Amino acid sequence: MNRRNFFSGAALTAVAAASVSKVAMAALPEPVQRETPDTAPPLQPASGRPYNPVVTLNGWSCPWRMNNGVKEFHLVAEPVVREIAPGMKAHLWGYNGQSPGPTIEVVEGDRVRIFVTNRLPEHTTIHWHGQRLPNGMDGVGGLNQPQIPVGKTFVYEFVARRPGTFMYHPHADEMTQMAMGMMGFWVTHPKAKHPLISEVQRDFCFLLNAFDIEPGSATPKINTMLDFNLWTWNSRAFPGIDTLNVRLGDRVRIRVGNLTMTNHPIHLHGHEFVVTGSDGGPWPMAARAPEVTTDVAVGQMRQVEFVADEEGDWAFHCHKSHHTMNPMGHAVPTMIGVDHRGLVQKLQKLVPDYMVMGERGMADMGEMEMPLPENTLPMMTGTGPYGPVEMGGMFSMLKVRRTQKAGDYSDPGWFQQPAGTQAYEWTGEPPAAPRAAAPDSGQGAVEVKAVKPTSHDTHH
Ligand SMILES: [Cu+2]
């Protein structure tokens, strides 16, 4: 290379570098897509004020671009395929490749600019639930802004004024778009030590959502109002929901938002927690009380905190028992106490595979995992170290381990219970107490007079 070329080349490079960055900054930030439904490690902030990032269960946080002091995000509303749990994929709508979309994490006082591109087959908007913002940024289509037409990109911009736990979702054809899975979490971290916001070692977040997908199909029924059959956390059902893995002694915060059409009493085993705040902000100390279950009503958010000081695998779930079940839990007649014995041989002549189920309860179904149509989940499933867990839907576990490293979110496997600390079978003399028995067992049966309801009511 001669001298002349060298100079012109260098000059060209310099010009190119300057113009590239200017052009790039004027262009849309690259939308970050995600392929897997796994829980991503916390996204440590690469620019802007420092904070302690959250972990989104079976999700991730959205990287941003800093542009002249403004945090720029790019959300793409689009059809996605989401694995609800191994064995079932759903055709949903979401953001950036998944439902829910990525969690947005910012710091109190940040100016935030969000580009929203609409790749859905219909118009959309985004409402920033719980934020203080100019009225024209609130995202109610028709009220605060024109709808975002198909193929267009709109820009939202506001200052994240108060720290807390928030979410985002469309405010356009809402029943369809939320039933299809469009939603995401938002966390605004405090800019400095806050008297009502404690520092924690683990900070988890997820949204409660629900779908109505017929066994064997993949697309939610969007006109369902109450009778959903898939109860999910971040569009995942047990055993597809990752466990919350923490170190013994960690202070843990769990943030939950409810975008279903019913309430969910969220229950933790082995520990008491304190509800420390909601989408309204951190709660005053005088309003806090120990609980083991907190109800999260429709459109509400709650954050709970506790010190994980009991080792083990602790169930963590919605306390509505039909919400810890997967599809096919409906329309199954109650068979407890019904004696099938005469009937079975007759039925097996017609249907050789016929099995009696339900006369002793439904636990058989947890064990049998009967053949299912393609693309659905067993009603009661999951296997623990001691057998079937018989759960589904909104169920996971808090795994507390002495040996878990700080910042390690990997699953430590099943808890090894110390000898002598597990419930055990009594092998002494059986008790002599009389009790209810089957009518033909020769023992006296306890008779119960039942009053049947006159109408079939719903179970929500
Ligand atoms: Cu529930």
Care to describe what's here?
- Strands 1, 11, 12, 14, 16, 17, 18 and 20 form an eight-stranded mixed β-sheet that branches. Strands 2, 3, 4, 6 and 8 form a five-stranded mixed β-sheet that branches. A five-stranded mixed β-sheet has the order 13-24-21-15-19, with no helix packed on it.
- It has helices at 3-26, 174-179, 341-350, 363-368; strands at residues 55-56, 65-67, 70-85, 88-95, 104-107, 111-118, 127-129, 153-159, 164-169, 184-189, 202-211, 230-233, 244-247, 251-258, 264-268, 273-278, 281-282, 290-291, 293-296, 301-307, 312-318, 381-384, 387-391, 395-401.
- The chain is globular.
- Helix content is 10%, strand content 30%.
String of helices and strands: HEEEEEEEEEHEEEEEEEEEEEEHHEEE
Alpha plus pi helix count: 4
Overall geometry: globular
Could you report the average pLDDT, rounded to the nearest whole number?
Answer: 87
DSSP E strands, number:
24
How much of the polypeptide forms β-strand, as a percent range? 25-35%
Biggest sheet descriptor: 8 strands, mixed
Q: What structural class should be given to the helix and strand makeup?
A: mainly beta
Q: Rg to the nearest angstrom? A: 26 Å
Ligands in the model, by name, code or SMILES, are: copper (II) ion
